[in-house]
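Quick check before the chapter quiz. The format below is the same one you will see on the exam, so make sure you can read both the input and the output lines.
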Amino acid sequence: MMKLKRNYLFGTTILAGIVALSAPASAQTQNAEPSSATQVDEIVVTGSRIRRDPTTAPTPLIQVAREELLSAGQNTVIDYLAQIPALSNSQVPSDNTGSTLNAGGLAIANLRALGNSRTLTLVDGRRHVGSQQGTLSVSVNTIPRLLIQNIEIITGGASSIYGADAVAGVVNFQLRKDFEGLEIDSSYARITEKGRNDQYRISALIGQNFFDDRLNVYGFGEYERIPQVDSMDLKWIARGTALVGVDADPITASIGPAIDGVYDNMLFSGLYRLDRPRWGSTTLANAQQPSPTTNPNVPQANCTGVTAAACYSVDPSKTWWFDGTTARLANFGQRIGNTGSNRPLNIGGDGEPIGTFSQDDRLPRTDAYRFQVGSNFKVTNQISAYAEAKYTREDTYAVGQPTFFDFYLSDSIYGAGAAPVTYLSGGAPSNQSHGLRVSDNAFIPATLKAAIAANTVTNYGAPTLNASGQALAATAAPWARHTMFGPNRDQTNERELQRYVIGFKGDHGDIGFVKNVSWDLGYTYGRMDNLNNERGVDVQRLVFAADSVVDTLGLVNGRAGEVVCRVKLLNAQNPALTNAQTGAGGIRDYSNRAGQTAGTYGDVRARAEGRAAINECVPLNIFGKGNQSADALNYVDASVNVRQRNEQQDAVGSLSGQFWDFWGAGPIGVAIGAEWRKEFTQGIGRSADTGDRQLFLNTGPDFAPASYESKEFFSEVSLPLFRDSILGEYAELSGSYRYSDYTNVGNVDVYGVNLVYRPVRDISFKTSFNTSVRVPNLGELYSPYTQTFANNFTDPCSTSSINNASNSEYRTNRIANCTALAAAKNLTYDFAGATETRDDDYTPLYTSGIPGVNGGNPFLQPEESESFTFSTVFQPRFAPRLSVVLDYYEIEISNVIASVTAQTAANVCVNGSSLNAGACSTIFRENTPVANPGNNIDRSEAFKVGSGGPFGGFIQGAINYAKRTARGVDFTANYTIDTREAFSWNLGTFTNSLQGSWLIEQKQFNNIANPDDFTEYASTLQTGGSYPRVRFANTLTWMPNDALALTWTTDFQTSQDIYQYRTQISNIDDRPIEYLRTGNFIRNDFGVRYNVNDEVTVRAKVTNIFAEEPAPWLGNTLYSNFDPYGRRFNVSLNYRPW
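Here is the expected output.
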């Protein structure tokens, strides 16, 4: 971080040089302008606790006035903030829908795309309880919008002023004071272009003064309904567009050239997937003929057994579809894609739209109720008391990806001699693969049973350079796999938030030699309670219900020929619990529960949950959509209810004043204070609701109560250097310091130094250097391990991943590191694809999500950051209606705390010059020995990320990364033309406002083993974020008169790399070159505001009027920066009767 300190010295040196050079010019302006022209009332501004001239605010500041917020026509406050380039990666509700637990509907500010937790959100300069369990992140939806006076955004570190977490900056909502009157604001919005998603809101604010205006009391209330938006509501997703592999290149130069002039991937629309529809399709065991190695579209993957993944590639002659209770061969329509063994995409025919494959809802349904009351009372002329109380409730509902299962259909699924009992797979409780007997299943259509019984598999020999693999002798393979999406996984959040503030403040003027003495003593209590209901499936019950047979003798219910669950029939045949340890003569429990001896099986009836599952079992037809009875679905349904709580107590006292004006530059300002804060969190219910059940849900232990406290002391001083001097109009040096003692991480201290210089009235310069910290939150520290899944996992060690690595260095590193990982398990693979055969490649198949766990890390340390800024403010006298602000910033964060996904950890493990021990320790590869060494698929199965660890395939949580850096320039320009003054005819006024950001660099240093290894995010598109090089919003407002305003807003961002050009040099025919970037994105909005009279204002807006859409080659991933909702509109009415 020495670079930032040198930059600050450089910045102060520049200012010193400007001071010296500007002396003559300043002297000339002294005679032209009287000193009174620069006098401004001194007030408290954000970024400082000292009263000062607002034009000398020490830090870069973006201000949003109340009128701007209302006139913008955005449906929510976060929608408006996310248009500000510095906040463009803020979390909007669509970002976490279907992918994040307990976060439905949250809207969280994120400055500089450095993470939600690194932006401190305040209300009137005071802390606010976190809206998500275990965090301090504040959902700005809880801020009463009619009460907002303005929003001030500090775009630099500010921990020395406001405390921990202000690493990237501060967003401070300043509320209206002493409001008197009644104001009602209502809005209606159509939020998608397809036109069936309507949003409503009504807000009211009332206030009244009493006792000769000494007491003000106000009340606020709001109801808002935001509709549920699913994938098919978005036109660009509903089109079903994706890049599909159509050509595979030879894996080594010795086989053939990687560039053959045929694009490897092309764009198609109207796509469906056949391999995992709702309630399934069934594929008979098969093998696909491998292609010649000079054109290796289809790899060699022979079928070796019932549960071998390579046996079940969808195939027009092997894949069956269900119409009602009958089955037929699936209609593949126009089959799309030539690469891979499993090619499930088609246009027309059967299948599931690809837009709904990974996720259903894109925006949760929200019903919100928000209330706040408050008062301000002048106890004396110098002392005031204030109080406020807030209550909000937000109920959200969203559907994520459905449950998913594989059922292997075979009479031999249990092994030779095994009893014909329901087969519930072994291993982790999250396992989604199970078995069903074919011959006596009550729901498998007869035609499909016959096809399975007669099925044979033709495997193939190894292909050669110019010839496909040759067919071997056909062998009997009377088995199949039924792959399906089952019942939905949905989440309901009932989030309640309470916040109470009470305090006193005083303004005493001069006391002795101290002038403008003021103080503030306040206490804040906040509590967030969230009831999170997660619905999914009881896996044991699903398997019991699916394994249904015909009770020919009527043993279960006395009705011969009735379809019953097999376990009920077995229980009726043998009601005695004969051997709970081995299951001999009983009903075997194949679930391998904790404490069970390996190779033994308990009796399901030994457990209360098992007995209930048998007695209540209702047959479930899993073969085909629409065949499921309501009773059966209710039987397999499961839910987990978690009650979460955050509590925050915060007491702050501060005292400020001004000392003598020693040399005529202005008084010295001083502020001191102390703060005590306690944070508490807990989450209970998950453990009790899970009990002894196997659930397709995020199961795990409760979040035990956890807390920490801090005691903090802070001070600030401002030292005016000169005013109206030969050296310039004004200069000030200020500094701040904070010492904090935390009960969990110990002592930390931070400081800041700022210099402001205004050589002449027209221009001013500011530079600052600040250190900041972020203390790990309670969730990062103490979250218990809970079950989760890594979906769409790409193994970084697979031969194809290595050959398609984003740069040659990664490729080289992965070959060496993956070889070392495999050697530790006594395995060898051709990771580089160096040999002509693919038999020795590592080619894992991940057919469903990988189970693992999320959890905290109690050994985390605080993050530390340094930030440097240099600002120029230009307000020329020759153009009094023009203002230009340029803010240069640098931020460097070390010891970064980041939640690492399984995919990221797996990549980081092998991407560096050596194995990253920290990341590798969280990824677990299989411990299963190779079943068939001669089969490539079986050999690859032995090294997959899977169930090799104590919690499945991975532990996903937070660790201290090396560092992150960001550097860029924010720019703002405003200009107003009064046509009557400028052109002598009255067309009204035109105001143009430009606000943007130029991102010079944004680097993530994620390799602890190699701290200098970084990934450049600037001008790239990343999972969870968009980093355009330049983004700006330009608003042109025309006011032909005082009552009418017309606005045109253009939101522009430059194109971003999906893949960088240089990484494609070795394979320039991978895809058309335009598919490597997003393309520039421009959204245009048009709005109107009309003041009908002094009491009524009407606003209307058309957003994205030209219906711009994300680039179609982005697939179905929703990036909120690229407006996904199409053309839409909103109208609102503001009524002020008194």
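If your answer matched, good. Residues 2-32 form the longest helix (31 residues).
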